[in-house]
Structures are given as structure tokens and as C-alpha cells.
Amino acid sequence: MRNCILLLIVLLIFGLLGFGAWQSRSLDAAPIQQSGTLVAPAPQATGDTEAEVIADLSRENGELRYSKDIAEIRADVLAEQSIWYEILTAILMGGFGLIITVAVVFFGLKFGGAALAEARATIAEAKADLEVERFKVTELLHDAETAVNRIKNHETRAAEAAELMEGAFADEPPQDEEKRRGLREIAKDALEHSRIERTMDDYRALVTVASMDKDWEAMERRASAMIYLFEDDDDETLAWAMFAKGYAISQQGRVLEAISAYDEFILRFEGGDTPALQEQVAMALVNKGINLDEINRHDDAIAAYARVIERFGDSDLPDLQDKVARAMVNLGYQYGRQKKYKEELSAYEEAASFLEDVQNPETIDLLNFNLACSHARFGRVEKSIKFLKQWRASIGELDCVKIATDEYFDKIRDRPTFRKFLEDNGCDPDAEPDDNPDPEPAAGPDSD
């Protein structure tokens, strides 16, 4: 259709051009002479007679009249042709305008409808895209709200974990049952999240609960994950995780690995000046000494305990005083292993001076029992019974098996006062009274 209209327009243009060329040729074919007033030429000064002149004039006038008539006829023809040309031109131009108008209307309707349909489709597509974007925005808002709630929950759990774990370490989980239940709730909630979504405090709770349950493999695994995920965090967080890993390895009996882990920890954090770091370094040295004792490296163990006393002995922080007291107790035990009994008792008594302002049940229980053993070694029944009573008050009842199997009590085991004490506590019903409960020890290597 479009090609037909274009062809018709071209034909009209060429028709107009052809008609114009034909008209030009018609005008050019007729002889043209100058029109105007017929004026007789002036007589020339010749020798012609007057009659001849008149005859010539008459002839010329006749020719002029003929030319005039021809010019008038030609003018009429031209006028008529001009009118028809104008009429034809007007018809052609009107037809051409009509064709253009029809074409414009046709294409306007055709392509206008297509454009309208296309516009409608575009609008529909835009609406669909808008719905998609609105849905995405809604999802983003929901995700943002979820993230905010998660952050708030993390902050709440972090605050709860910090409160529940105050003063506790991986090897010293809280003893308060309410705190232990709280940590279990936090750990349970943490296990419902992926590893990457767990916070540092989630992992602290998970590690501590594993320590409470004595699940050393889980404790090592979780501490390792904590080290990996929070390696770039603050030193106290990383130190806590590294210490927990070393302790878990030690509890699995991998003594050499534990010593290596503690050495790495001490090398990295011994220069720390915050109380938390200093406390963990002191405890790492104590635990390292215990592991060294397990493989009979007693001198190295003594060196580890002495390092704690030298490094932190002047501290007035209660938690560090507790670690120093532990080092002194363990140092005394090492002296006893080497049969240096005076040095052993001296170490225990010095430890007791550190524990006057420190209320750590585990350290106090260990010190009371070791003091009872050391005094028994020197034959001091009353002093031994005194510390056994303090030990009993702390743990609830005497551990009869432990007393019966510890060779330190052999020197007073048959003494009537000691036997009576054991009988009163359900350990030896055959005890007899002791008339001399605390005689002076015999001279020799065990004397004061």
C-alpha cells in the first residue's frame, strides 16, 4: 500500500512537469511579432512617386492589420490555455493534497494504533517492572528489618553472654547454676544459626558449654573456628580462643601439642598490659607447667611456675593474685616431687598469703589439702586436721579414699587423734584417742 501511494505521487509530479513542457512548446511554435499601435513608417527621401508611396503604405497597413489579428487570436489562445493550465494545476494539486491527506490519515491510523498498542504494552511492562521493583524493595525492607532484629538479638545475647561469663575462662566455666543455664540457652540459640552468622559471643558461649560438658573435641573445634573467624578481632578475643584451644588439647591427653599451643600463646600475648590478657598469660604458664609435670619435666615445670610468680607476683589484682597463688601451690607440689619438703611447705604458706583476699574455691580447696598433706609429712597432726577441716567445709565431706591413698598421711595415719578425726568423718571407725596429738617431730630430714 505504501509503495502504491508513493508511485502515484511520482506519476503526478511527472504529469505536471510534462504538461508544463507541452505548454512551453505550444507557445514557442506561434510566430511572435511586436504588438502595439500601428504606426506608418515615415516616408523616405527617395525619388519614388507619391502613388507608389501610397501603395506601399496601404500594403504595409494591411500586413500590420493581419499581424494584429494574429496577435489577438494568439493572445486569446494563450489566455484560454492559461486558464486550463491553472484549472488542471489546481486539480492536480488538490488531488495531490487529497492523496497526501489520505495517506497521512491512513498511516496515522495504522501506525498510530500500533504506537498506541506499543505504548500500552510499554506501560504494562513498566507497571510489571514497577511491581517487581516494589517487591524487591519490600524484600529489602524485610531483610533490613530482619537484619536489624538480628543485630538487636546479637547485641542482647552479647550483653547476656558478657554478664554470664564475667570472670570466667574456658578452663573455669561459671559455677553458678543460673549462669550455666543462661549460657546453655545462648549456645542452643547459636547452634540454630550458620557458622558465619554466629557472633564472637555465640562462640564464647559454645566453647564454654563444651567445657562445662567436658566435650573436649567440640571445645577444640569451636575454639579453632573462633580463631579463624575472629583472627583480626581484638587481642583479648583472640587470646581467649587460643587459650581455650590449648586447654581442650591438653584435656584430650595430647600433652606435647598442648605445650606447643601454650608456648605460641605466651609468645604472642606475654607483653599484653590489660588485666584480661595478663590473667590468661599467667594461667597459660600454670597449665604449661602442669603438662610439663605430666611428662616428668619437673625442672621445666618449676621454671614455668617461677615465671608466673616473677612476672605477676607484685600485682594487686585479685584475679592475678589467684593465678600467682596457683603457681605457688604447683611449685610447692614440684618441690615435694623432688623431696624438697621445706621448700614445698614454704611455697604453700606463701600461697596462702595471696589467697587472703581471693575467694577462688578451686584454688583454696587445693591449697588446704596440700597444706594438710605437707604438715602431715612433718608429723603435725593438729595442723593437718585444721586444714582438712577447712577442706571439708569447702567440699562438703572428706574424701576418705584420697586421704587413705595419699602417702603424705602415712606418718600420722596411726596417730589416735588423726584416727579419731577420720572416724568422726566416717573414714576410720576403729580409731583410738590420741593423748599426745601434736608432738615435736623427730630430728632428721623431716624436721623443721
Report what the structure shows.
It is a single chain. By secondary structure, this protein is mostly helical. Helices cover 74% and strands 0% of the residues. It is built from 15 helices and no strands. The chain is rod-shaped, with a radius of gyration of 61 Å.
What does this entry show, briefly?
The protein has 448 residues and is an all-alpha fold.
Indicate the low-confidence ranges by residue numbers: 27-47, 440-448
* Derived structural class: mainly alpha
Arithmetic mean of pLDDT: 77
- The coarse silhouette is rod-shaped
Helical content stands at over 70%
- N-C termini distance: 130 Å
Q: Count every helix, treating DSSP H or I runs of 4 or more residues as helices.
A: 15
Secondary structure: number of strands: 0
Strand content: under 5%
Q: Which sequence of SSEs, written as H and E, runs from N to C?
A: HHHHHHHHHHHHHHH
